[in-house]
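tl;dr need the bound structure. longer version: we got a ligand (manganese (II) ion) that a collaborator sent over and nobodys looked at where it sits. i said id run it. heres the input, straight from their email, havent touched it
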Amino acid sequence: MDFDVFNGDADGILSLVQLRLSDPRDAELVTGRKRDINLLDRVHAGAGDRVTVLDISMRSNEADLRRILDAGASVQYFDHHNSGEGVEHEALDAHINTASEICTAVLVDRFLDGAHRSWTIAGCYGDNFPEMAERLAQGRDLPLSNLRELGEMVNYNGYGGSEADLHFHPADLYREMAGFPTPMAFLSSKPDVIQKLTDGYYDDFVFADQSKVLISEPTGEIRVLPDAAASRRVSGMFGNQLAQENPERAHAILTAQNDGFLVSIRAPLSRRFGADMLALQFETGGGRAAAAGINHLPESDLDRFLEAFRIAF
Ligand SMILES: [Mn+2]
C-alpha cells in the first residue's frame, strides 16, 4: 500500500502534484490544515508499503517515522523545516535542506530535474519565496501573476481553526489539481476552483477590515475579530497586511473563541522585537521576538493584556 503524506498548504500540495505527475500512484492521502504537522501518527504502514512525506518537519514526526521504518515500510522524505538530529535508516530516502531560500517544491523540482517547473514556481509563491519563483522562471514565458495567485490562494486555503473552516479539504484541493501537466492547464480547465478561493479571500478580508478597533495609536493597534470561520482563516494574513501598511506600529489581532480570545501579536516591522516578551506574560503565550501569540486569553485578562501591550510597544 502507498501513503502520500503532505502539508495541506501550497508547498505540500504542489510538491505532491509534481511528484505524482512523474510517478503516478494510487495512494492514500494523509493531510490536514497548514498547522497540522504531526501527520505521520496517522500512518499505519507495514512491510512492503511505500510512504512519501512532503513539507512536514522530521523533528516533529521523528518517533512515528522510526515506527514506520521499523515496521518494514520504505519512506521517501522531502522537507525544508528543522529536521532535528535526523533519522538514518536504509529504507529512508531523505531529501532535507533547511537553507532559508528553499522550499519543498524546489527540492522536488531538483529531484525531478525541473520536469514540472511551472508547478514549482506556483509552490514557491505560495510558500512566500517570490525571489526563488522569479529565478526559476527566468528564460521561460510563463504567466507569473497567475502562478502567484494560484500559490497564494492554495496557501490561504490551509488556514482555519479546524478542517471545517477550510474552503476545500486539502486532499480534495490536491485531487482537483492532480494530473494536470501545468497550472495553466488546470486554471483554464477548472476556473471555478481558483474563483472560489479568490472570492473567499476577498470576502474574508472585507470582513476582517470591518472588525472592531480596540486600540489605535501611533505605536500600536489592536483589532478584535468575531468568533467565525472567516476570522480564523484570515487573521494571520490580515495581521501581516496591517503590519505592512503601518511598519512603525505593533499589532495584535484578537479572535474571539469560547470565553476569551486567540491572540496573534506582531512587533513593528521597523523594530522587530518585544512580541514574545508580551506573550509570555500570559499563561498560554509563546513565540518569537517579531511574532508571537497567546493560545487562549481569558476574557477576564483582556484589560491586563491591553495594559501590557501599551507598555511593551
Ligand atoms: Mn514549505
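gonna send this back to them w/ a short note. DSSP finds twelve helices and eleven strands in the chain.
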